[in-house]
Amino acid sequence: MTGAQLVLKVLQQHGVQHIFGYPGGAIMPIYDALYDSDVKHFLSRHEQGAAFAAVGYARTTGKVGVCMATSGPGATNLVTGLADAMMDSVPVVAITGQVFSSLIGTDAFQEMDVLGMSLSITKQSFLVQSLDELADILHQAFEVAQSGRPGPVLVDIPKDIQIGAVDFEPYALPEKTFEPVADCDIAKARDLIGAAKKPLFYVGGGVGLADAIDELQDLLDATQIPAISTLKALGTVPSDYPYNLGFVGMHGNQAANHAVQECDLLICTGARFDDRVTGKLDTFAPHAKVIHLDIDPAEIDKLRKADISILGDFKQILPALKATPEISAWQQDAIESIAKYAWRYDYPNEDIYAPALLNKLSKALPYDHVVSCDVGQHQMWVAQHMQFTSPRNHLSSGGAGTMGFGLPAAIGVQVARPDTTSVVVSGDGSFMMNVQELGTIKRFNLPVKIVLLDNQRLGMVKQWQELFFEERYSETNLSDNPDFLTLAKAFDIPSVSISKADEVDAAIEQLVNSEGAFLLHVQIDDKANVWPLVPPGKANHDMIEGA
Amino acid sequence: MTHTINLKAHNRPEVMERVLRVVRHRGFALQQMSMQQCDINQEVNITLNVTGERCINNLELQLSKLYDVSHIELEAATAIKSAVAMNA
Ligand SMILES: Cc1ncc(C[n+]2csc(CCOP(=O)(O)OP(=O)(O)O)c2C)c(N)n1
């Protein structure tokens, strides 16, 4: 068979059924092999859309997402999606076509140093140098993408290798193996937890990535220790856990931010002390000892020194940490704080209050729905006011904060989970960044539900201009937006636009009950801001509330 | 602070770029380096002298995360200073 046919065979050996991509000259042999392959290809309308669809696919299933592009500009268009996957530890394999090996380094048409470009935005990358190594490299790509801390891997395949003849060989998937965890560290950590007066779980995306959600929930049940969650962890701690203090960080819940400042033991579980979580780092959790649990040794002591660190598989570590500290006063504080700082949705005005709308939407959607969102104010409102049953059901570009993430990610979700309601919550700025993917929705009849919160502004940037740049609104006014209903119509997507609070219930019902894709356009006040807020460079207990 | 790092890595054409990129991005400057192919396992030995204010263990851990790096060793700081002096 040809190298191109081999590529598809190897994908199938790794259980790949769906891939996202866009063809072009240097990858034509692989597209030709695809023509009669069982692997189903979803044509995006921009390679960034393909990369984000693969990210959405991977994040919502835990399986590897695969995207493909041609050389040169095809590959550069993948870059943002791969960088996003890198920062959020998402297992993605990207396959790029490359010009003939003999033309590499001659500035040939669409010849770019894709391997060179990939170095900082992938976990690993390969330029295939001979047919002999093609299958092995592809197997390695899948293994590296999923092992340890997951991440994106790029495989650049010159055209001569795609058309060359090669034998196909069977392959046995490797067993997942983990180093055993040192018992003495576990015992020390358990003692520290048992002796703590104010312990706090700081839950990150690593728990979901390790597929250890049940183990974490068991540990919470056993210890009854209060917990805070990062953006990527939302959905991990059950919403009915009595000591769930919620979302921590710059736009987190006050209850979470105050608890972290008061705790005497912080159990960092697959999180990484990101600046959007910690605020001014040396003021974060100032009274706490730290137990840091992770799979990635490079996260330990990177930003905050750990008193005890345990590396390894959470499925082994978490069950071994069951201790029962005597913390009734601290639990009582948590319950009071949760009640005191609960989100409020009473809003006297006639226009639409986005947090209230999102909260209603969250309750109206089927139990196991997935929300993908974009980046900005609406993203923070989603994190604050919607509830999730799993971190796989809340896809938000965390580390990279990439506008344009939501729509293609929701496409990836819908392909991976055809029977699940896949919702995008976007802003009018972000939506336009990958709006071409409406074409993908139309082409494959994907019933993606779109909620577009339109404030006619680049809202989050505008909010900072208002608060920190003396209301000098430089380049954040989008009042010349297109007519979004006409835009939806061009892709055969039914839509409705609302601007008043009393229209919300009916519109949500229409969206939830729609058969296919649907766009709900929500006009909101451009002056609405996200509260509370930890101002940049401040400590988390210095959160401010808006007027 | 100057440090010496010895590492063994898979002999791919881009391996030196990978290593140097991490050194720069994680806040260190390169002072001296050498790379030598070893016969066994298609590996190369790389020695780097780097300076930087940040914690060298963080760099060591970041480098050891590279898929192509199979072994890494940090020379004790005092020994490095004399090595640099000798090289100078
Ligand atoms: C690709 C990209 N470019 C720029 C930014 C900077 N940025 C962050 S939020 C934001 C505004 C987003 O506006 P919109 O999508 O309308 O959402 P809103 O904040 O109004 O809810 C911008 C420009 C970014 N995060 N990503």
UniProtKB/TrEMBL annotation, chain A:
Instruction: Please provide, in alphabetical order, the Gene Ontology terms of the cellular component aspect for this entry.
Output: acetolactate synthase complex
Q: What class of enzyme is it?
A: transferase
Q: Which reaction does it catalyse?
A: 2 pyruvate + H(+) = (2S)-2-acetolactate + CO2
Q: What does the UniProt keyword field contain?
A: Amino-acid biosynthesis, Branched-chain amino acid biosynthesis, FAD, Flavoprotein, Magnesium, Metal-binding, Thiamine pyrophosphate, Transferase
> Does the UniProt entry include the keyword Oxidoreductase?
no
Q: How is the cofactor bound?
A: Binds 1 thiamine pyrophosphate per subunit.
User: What residues does the Thiamine pyrophosphate enzyme central domain cover?
Assistant: 186-321
Which pathway does UniProt place it in?
A: Amino-acid biosynthesis; L-valine biosynthesis; L-valine from pyruvate: step 1/4; Amino-acid biosynthesis; L-isoleucine biosynthesis; L-isoleucine from 2-oxobutanoate: step 1/4
The molecular function terms in GO held by this entry are: acetolactate synthase activity; flavin adenine dinucleotide binding; magnesium ion binding; thiamine pyrophosphate binding
Its signal peptide is: none
Q: What is its EC number?
A: 2.2.1.6
Residues forming the Thiamine pyrophosphate enzyme TPP-binding domain are 374-522
Q: Does the keyword Iron-sulfur apply?
A: no
Pfam families, per the entry = TPP_enzyme_C, TPP_enzyme_M, TPP_enzyme_N
Query: This protein's superkingdom?
Result: Bacteria
Q: Which SUPFAM superfamilies match?
A: DHS-like NAD/FAD-binding domain (SSF52467), Thiamin diphosphate-binding fold (THDP-binding) (SSF52518)
Q: Which family does the entry's similarity section mention? A: Belongs to the TPP enzyme family.
Could you tell me what this protein is called? Answer: Acetolactate synthase
Species, as recorded: Catenovulum maritimum
